[in-house]
From TrEMBL:
ATP binds at G11, R74, Q75, G111, N112, G113, T114. This is ATP-dependent 6-phosphofructokinase. It comes from the Bacteria. Keywords: ATP-binding, Cytoplasm, Glycolysis, Kinase, Magnesium, Metal-binding, Nucleotide-binding, Transferase. Catalyzes the phosphorylation of D-fructose 6-phosphate to fructose 1,6-bisphosphate by ATP, the first committing step of glycolysis. InterPro entries: ATP_PFK, ATP_PFK_prok-type, Phosphofructokinase_CS, Phosphofructokinase_dom, Phosphofructokinase_III, PKF_sf. It is found in: Cytoplasm. It comes from Lachnotalea glycerini. Its main location: cytoplasm. One of its GO terms (molecular function) is 6-phosphofructokinase activity. PANTHER family: ATP-DEPENDENT 6-PHOSPHOFRUCTOKINASE 3, PHOSPHOFRUCTOKINASE. One of its GO terms (biological process) is fructose 6-phosphate metabolic process.
Length: 357
């Protein structure tokens, strides 16, 4: 008998269900006696013994369904804060649930925060296999996370829609794209949607360079400009501040996000009419695109193979088009950022895109 626990943690994204389906198909097609325990709402389910037994039927028909059939939650604790409000040691509680159910392995689908906890549980002696999920594509050790391409499709579609209205009115438009502290989503959607200016956290911007780019387009007879702005974009000035100083400055900012600050500065300096669109959580919603369905199925069955081989303590990944694996301690605590000198940025710059630097 093989007993597997499974949970999805952190912000949801497209193809979580498809990935779990891949894991379960890969196991149940190769082993007769399997018990699958699905924990509700991420690590919370493991801490508070909130789970249900699942059969292969639960994973049928979910390839195309967005969200997660298990539910998810943000990580319930910072690693430093191990006790919950009632004094329960959450790490010990997770270990106890794992032992009580006599699990052979825990499959964890999540992003960066999730991987820190997964690595901690591995260090505590649990058999762990993880899968890289996030629309941000910021997980170390994999070229691609599932969810990313689906979000690129949605953000690109938003830019496409804005294009026609921006052109009709001759306006400057900002489309604010998710991505947390990295610019992958904005970079790809910005290039795919033909944004004129792309602002990402990895390349701090100078407002005067942005205005120059807008003026240059005006002079060339192009009355509208589209900016794809990452939610984590940062000005050159702010990038010089310490973490603490920046936190304080943003706390006191009158703007709800960086896009509003940039818009106010452009309006003040150029008098141009400017509008902001924030697609927000739409970028994480809906059905996974075909690329993500394929990727998550490949990663899911690869995770199943690791379990069958008893090869624990790894995240499945994709590197140069091939399925691979990375030890969890190499993944935890690292962020995969866009490299400003990379060829994708060079190509975009060569094609006339401004990065505001
Ligand atoms: O990590 C995925 C993500 O969608 C980020 O792009 C975004 O910054 C964050 O989650 C939003 O988190 P929440 O769903 O908690 O608002």
């Amino acid at each position: 008998m093989l007993r597997i626990g499974m949970l999805t943690s952190g912000g949801d994204c497209q193809a979580l269900n498809a990935a779990m389906r891949g894991v379960v198909k890969g196991i149940t097609n190769n082993i007769q006696e399997v018990e699958i325990y699905g924990f509700s709402e991420g690590y919370k389910g493991l801490i508070y013994e909130n789970y249900r037994m699942l059969t292969s039927g639960d994973f049928s028909g979910i390839l195309t369904r967005g969200g997660t059939i298990l539910g998810t939650s943000r990580q319930p604790f910072k690693l430093m804060k191990i006790l919950d409000e009632n004094g329960l040691n959450k790490v010990e509680a997770m270990k106890a649930t794992y032992s009580k159910l006599n699990l052979d392995c825990l499959v964890i689908l999540g992003g960066n925060g999730t991987h820190k906890t997964a690595n901690l549980l591995k260090d505590e002696g649990l058999n762990i296999v993880t899968l890289p999920k996030t629309i941000d594509n910021d997980i170390w050790g994999t070229d691609m996370t599932f969810g990313f391409q689906s979000a690129v499709d949605i953000a690109t579609n938003a830019i496409d829609c804005i294009h026609t209205t921006a052109a009709s009115h001759g306006r400057v438009f900002i489309v604010e794209v998710m991505g947390h502290k990295v610019g992958w989503l904005t970079l790809h959607a910005g290039i795919a949607g033909g944004a004129d200016i792309i602002l990402i956290p990895e390349i701090p911007y100078d407002i005067d360079r942005i205005i120059e780019a807008i003026e240059k387009r005006k002079k060339a007879g192009k009355g509208f400009t589209i900016l794809a702005v990452a939610e984590g974009a940062i000005s050159k000035e702010n990038s010089q501040l310490s973490k603490k100083e920046l936190k304080e400055k943003l706390k006191n900012s009158p703007y709800p996000s960086v896009s509003y600050e940039i818009a106010a500065q452009i309006q003040k300096k150029t008098g141009q009419e400017i509008r902001i669109t924030v697609p927000g959580h739409m970028q994480r919603g809906g059905s996974p695109c075909p690329y993500d369905r394929v990727l998550s199925t490949r990663l899911g069955t690869a995770a199943a193979q690791l379990i069958l081989d008893k090869d624990f303590g790894n995240m499945v990944s994709i590197v140069n088009g091939d399925i691979s694996k990375v030890p969890l301690d190499q993944v935890a605590g690292k962020l995969k950022m866009v490299i400003p000198e990379s060829s994708i940025i060079k190509v975009a710059k060569l094609g006339g895109t401004s990065f505001g630097d």
